[in-house]
Sequence to fold (591 residues):
Amino acid sequence: MKQLLTGNEAIARGAWEAGVSFASAYPGTPSSEILANLTKYGEIRSEWAPNEKVALEAAIGASIGGVRSLAAMKHVGVNVAADPLFTFSYMGVSGGMVLITADEPGQHSSQNEQDNRWYAVSAKLPMFEPSNSMECRDMLLDAYKLSEDYDAPVLMRVTTRICHSKSVVDCADRVSVEAKPYKKDPQKNLMVPAFAIKRRAEVEKRMAALAEYSENSPFNKIEKGGRLGIITSGMCYHFAKEVFGEDATYLKLGFTNPLPSRLLAEFAALVDEIYVIEENDPYLENWVKAQGYKCKGKDTFPPFGEMTPDVIRASAKGESYPVINYNKELLVPRPPTLCAGCPHRGFFYELGKLKNIAISGDIGCYTLGFAPPYNAMDTCLCMGGAFSVAHGMQHAFDGSGQELRAIGILGDSTFFHTGINSLMEVLYNGSKAISVILDNRITGMTGHQENPGSGRRLGGDPAPVMVIKDIVKAIGFKHIFEINPNDLTAVKKALADALALDEPSVIITLWPCPLKAMGADERELFGNPFTAKYIVDASACIGCKLCIRCGCPALSISRGTNKAEIDGTQCLGCDVCAQICPKQAISREGK
Fold:
């Protein structure tokens, strides 16, 4: 049976066909859809985890328990999961285990562009790099067999274009894989130093055996053509083929750790010149040069960004296809903005008016608070880092006599991810930094995935709601302000009260994302919050444009009258603009 699937869909399909029983992930673009698609297969228990580390640990536990498992995350998530990953490499598997890392050349929605192929080298893991959806499925099937045959967890590295592009996949039935009976084996599964030292030697034996596998892997092959040689992997293979076609001979690498030295020698004998085309770091290039072969790599192609056909063509041939010319000055910039009705808007509107503060942000929709008209975020480092960074900033300000207050801001999913630990740092060390948790009861930025505070699990089953205020109180905070962020008076008061304190405090803004489908528990908590519409009384509006400063895309200024207008198809009745208007020209429709 043939299906047209994205790479993420094909990974989910491949996991099902391979007999996987357990999968866990934390959502992160471009990997989020893997777990969402796995919910279609009832034989696999699929779960959102609070963060990538515990997702991998759960998958490791399932492997130790005897079943095939999968963990998925974006590239920066592997940084969070690196602690268990390196040690699990020593332990090896019972049931096969595959970790999907979704790298993002070009940084479309990521804070860095790291190359996670180095994790395979550092942790001594076999690695696959598919170049299309069909290979996502095929390589995953092979990965589970290899994982069990070589007693090794396997890393599969995909990239944004593979995750989200579609190609035809030949699908098959699910393989029946019996769970292996659990066997107590502390010398393999309990990594105290005495046992870990012995397992370290086993890792080296495994890598030597895998080197031989790499030479004969069906995913490493030579495609003969012209005397120009191209070494490539992943999506770059298709990009290179589009530029060079049959004029080149290709060494296409799909199993990329360990790399096949003998196959490289065979390839080099067929060509006069070698290009290494890869995205991000010179991983393959360094290997080629270490084997004694000259090649053109990052001296010819860009050291970062996507290696698309136009980039390859311009770099290697100095050519470009003709394009339609237009006056770029006529383009209206359309920066990303918070949605109409977003509960973060009222809070950032008031926060941006404060003076003598430094604001540490985090990863989420609310990172857009840095942009105009709010200008209410100064730093953004990593998931869960906002409170820790604010704590360090406050220490610096206090020690140097600067009259500044640090405010750390993160969202509910980020709080559950690693923000709890960050918050403990603030309280334990007595920081007067202000910690703000924007609770919209969903993981908004990556596509509305559930989290421990949303009341549902992956797939929609009801789950206990972990109430953020109760958790903060249990940690030991005395000063907790929970507010509706659409109430500007409440926002101003909470900020003023927190700034007046000389000890740790937490502000929790509680209002749901307007794009989220609310459950019965949330309707009980919030009522029916997104049914009202607001209108402008043109006779009362003076055209002061103050309402525009709340940044709502439903608001605009009429070119004809120079007065405010509200797009009723977008307005969700948050009431923020009405509170800002100095002339009460904005009111609820029907009142």
DSSP finds 20 helices and 23 strands in the chain. The longest strand covers residues 97-103.
